[in-house]
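Loading example: each entry is read as two labelled lines plus one structure line.
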Amino acid sequence: MSTLTSPISTSSRSTSFPFPSIYSFPPFFTRQPNSQTWTSQLSLWNSLILAYCRYNRIWRIDLNTAIEWDLFNNRDISRSLKLETCKEVLDSMVKKGDAEWVSGSGSQVSKNTSAIIYWRRPEEWANIIADWIDSTGQKNTILTLYEIAEGDLSLSQDFRGIDPTILRKALDVLIRRGQAQIMKSADGEEAGVKFFGSQ
Amino acid sequence: MYFWRQIDLTSARRPVLLQNEVDIFVQDGVGLYDGRTKLDGYQNGRVYLTTHRVCYVDNIQSATHSVAIELSQVHRIQFSPGLLRSSPKISLYLLTPSSPSTPIALSSPRPISPAIAALHLQSLDLPTSPAVSRSHTPDSNAVFNWICPICSFSNAMKVADSDGPPPPCLTCGIRPAVSVIEQGKESMAGLNKTAHIYAAHLPIGVENESGFACPRCTFVNHPSLLQCEMCGATLVSKNLPPTLLDNAMRDLVINERYSPSPTPPGMRYNDDDVDHIKISFRTGGERIFLDKLKIVLQDRIWERRTRNIGTVGAVQDRHSRASTQRLPKLGIHGLEIQTVKESQRNLELLHSLNDLDSLMQKAKEMVSLAETFAMRLSNAPGVPEEARTALLESSEALSLSSPIVMREMAGSGDETFYAELARQLAEFLDNGVLVKEGGILTLFDLYALYNRARGLSLISPKDFYRACSIFEKLRLPFRLRKFRTGVVVVQEAYYSDDAINSMLMDWIKKTSRQRGISLGVTSQDVNQHFGWSVTIALEELETAEVSGNLSRDSSLEGTRFFENLINTFQWNWKKEVFQER
């Protein structure tokens, strides 16, 4: 589980990400005082973060470390996005539903520094997982959450290595639709999920 | 419009002043009359009283309806106070060029043609002695007096002889300086004119062997009396020494305000209406105008064109003339002249720095002295270029093109004062100040520059601001502009915000193409390119930013501005990165 929750080190993988040309535009890294420009800037950052996370299969951003990523640092023009501006960008993503703040593990200090990035919304994930269950003939079988994210059958899937929180949200969607059910073990722990075929 | 002459205006629609001419008073809201007829199109304007002229500048059609009369033409003034709906008026009686005399050239420094003066004398039945009647003609037989500086004996001299070397004093035998003779000549000329201006209506007694005829009641008094035995009128003998007569005249004019006399002053002229013009004061100010006009008419500054003794310019003028006429004297005499010149200059410097009052009086001399220093320096070899330009600039900054506008100059109400101030400011700006600053100047810079140019009698920021804020109302080619941050600037009126913005944007686009997109411009770049001060440059950039044309890049190196690509940038990441759809 530990490999899932910790943000993936991106330094090796991100080099190939095709940054858009606006990434080399110095004012892009300064919070624009003009509100109209700022709105455009926010939506550009929104897109960039989603694209970057999807490209590198990043599920969570922890600002304390992510601020060092090349996503927020263009070393060619030596510009970087400030932490406050980063938070503003994520805030606006949260408002749009493209991200969600997660309270850090226990400590209140780390509140609003870590966010789940929904480069696909939970509904989309639900559809993808349901399709996958259908196509692999796993209806009416019980799968553990680990098996979905890391199992042999999901190797080539988009949700490979999916963050458990996102997975749980996607499963919640399926449960609401009546396509899945959470199975609990004797001690009350969530042990697995049973899928029903879509009628 | 018989008497009025069209005049030139400055860019701020004030009369262009002649050499040595000085503004004295301005009153808004006046109308003009020729005799009794209202002059159409000249009913809403400002009247400027200067040392040489009375100028009218129309508020609406200033380009075509701006006229002036020379004060030298004025020989009498009359004041009629307002009654019910009629505004107070001042009538100026003028010497008609059509009268049986040679026409007067307007530029002539001598106001009265001898023929007219003679006519006046005849009409008063004055027994004109040959000496007096001829003294005001410039012919060579005229006699004037010069006072010996040694023994103060009053020597008589013919004009014809005055050009030659000065003769020795009759009493002490010492030859006077040329300037003494000139002074004598001038005082004669001045006196004659004064005498004839007032001769028409002022009580100059008529003297003959039997006694002194009172000008008012014609009673023949004993020659030794100063006042008329019958009516108490002041008796002024025309045989008084010139200086005394002059003074006596002045006293009379000041003290006696057109006392009713059996022969009313304007009677002869009332028959013919076209020999005077009237200025109607619709918004007041007539009293001050009248007082100042009287003083100006007495001072007769327009005659002093050549006098100006004491100013450096005149001194130099004379010296240069002297040096061209009689070749530069070498040897001991030349050295002596040099020493005299030097000591004169030193004395001037010393006098002017004694106290503030004399500094004010000598301000003009000091400025011209500074100018000559600058000129000499600029011609001398081996002077660093910076010192030269600094000197030149400082002498430029020292002087305004026109005399400074003071509160006392303006007529009733503060409005006229502010309007005049605004006009002078506009002239000041027009004189290259604004061009040097790239067409835009912050208000506080202008305040400092303008007050520096005034030198003395500084104006308060409040007056200054009020004057600036009526630029547009007065249709002057400047306007105030307030930036979002509260910075106020003065700029040329045709520079609209949009025009400046597009100018700036064009330049930024061009430079970003040249330098590459990632460099942008700073306020210093703008300052260097447009000549605007850094404050203004920053304000302009921020204005463009607010309108969405620019975006900024703040870093440790400072703030740079870029064309706003953020607003227009389109990026479909799903398609471009993941080739979806």
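Chain B is about 40% helix and 15% strand.
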